[in-house]
Amino acid sequence: MDEPRSRYLTWESSRVTPEQRERLLGQQGCVVWLTGLSGSGKSTISRLLERRLVDSGQLAYVLDGDNLRQGLNADLGFSPEDRAENIRRIGHVAGLLADAGLVAIAAFISPYREGRRCARRAAPAGRFVEVFLDVPVEVCEERDPKGLYRKARAGELSDFTGVQAPYEPPESPEVRIDTSTMTPEESVEHLLHALRERGFVPPDTAGGDRVTRTRR
Amino acid sequence: MDEPRSRYLTWESSRVTPEQRERLLGQQGCVVWLTGLSGSGKSTISRLLERRLVDSGQLAYVLDGDNLRQGLNADLGFSPEDRAENIRRIGHVAGLLADAGLVAIAAFISPYREGRRCARRAAPAGRFVEVFLDVPVEVCEERDPKGLYRKARAGELSDFTGVQAPYEPPESPEVRIDTSTMTPEESVEHLLHALRERGFVPPDTAGGDRVTRTRR
Hints:
In chain A, 42% of the residues lie in helices and 11% in strands. The first copy, chain A, has helices at residues 18-25, 42-55, 65-69, 80-99, 113-122, 137-143, 148-153, 184-197, 209-215, and strands at 30-35, 60-63, 103-107, 128-133, 175-177. Chain A has a five-stranded parallel sheet with strand order 2-3-1-4-5, sandwiched between helices. The longest helix of chain A is centred in the middle third of the chain and has 20 residues, at 80-99.
């Protein structure tokens, strides 16, 4: 801990094994990484997914960008370097949460493949679910829930993803959802199915009642 | 999330409440922050505490400095500024884990009061347990489990806490343990008692058997 020279660093594995955490929580820790343009539905879907998981007795936690910008990442601005560092740190925090056994839900534009690759590497092996909210930019711009596209078009924002700055779509995301054709509820159901299929959370059992009863 | 200008940031509270997390986990998320000289027993006690908690059905997670130095904090060196930043980030990550419902255990020399104050502020209000491993430096130096005091005395390390660099003892830690007069097991028992007393983890019930049975 806090050692003065890196040559003394050794990787100390937790004496509590991942299997013990799985037995305790009835789930496998993983990272659900939602990427997509502003207005693609990341925030809505991440909160709804967390809600559904917790309601059925699973431990999930949304990493919220705005909250992090006021805490861990309060020292970062919005230069390209700082944005990359923002995503790098979030990737590692999500990985820690997954290592602790949680379903860590991260919802960030994260426009660059390299940033998302970095997040995948920081997660426990095989426990990263990249979810691409694949929505046409026209739809996002029409929704414009925070008025950001309008500001970007008016020149009040620079480097806005989808307007002045590029978005690199994932090449082979684990899950792809078009929220212009699916409701938030349908999107989350689709996501839950993907998590169950991978064995990260238990199969749906009559609305999760059994799990809830034994866990509360 | 990932907004381009800080003026658009708003604190988005999780729609899952802390009370729901408490019901799910049967505990209150909190940060247990162990501070003390190198060799004071931080690592041993933190791992044993995690072990004991998980064995009795509670979800605990040790933030390990060496692991973090290879991930989230891999960009940091050992200058005074980087050490302060290391502790700052760890404080925020511990706070996030506690917010997610876990008993987050952080074991770091964290020699300066300001660093520990910063960690306290980053934790959910009233959920920070500062644990001072109050062991005479002579005892730590005699133990010298990693041979660091020897190297520091030989001039191979500079700014080593307790030799060339100061350690500011906590003025009013929630828990004080002298591991030169208590065994690791006794120390952890003392700590568990403090956590139960505050209601963060449930009372000891016949060795935690009941909890284990219903949660697994």
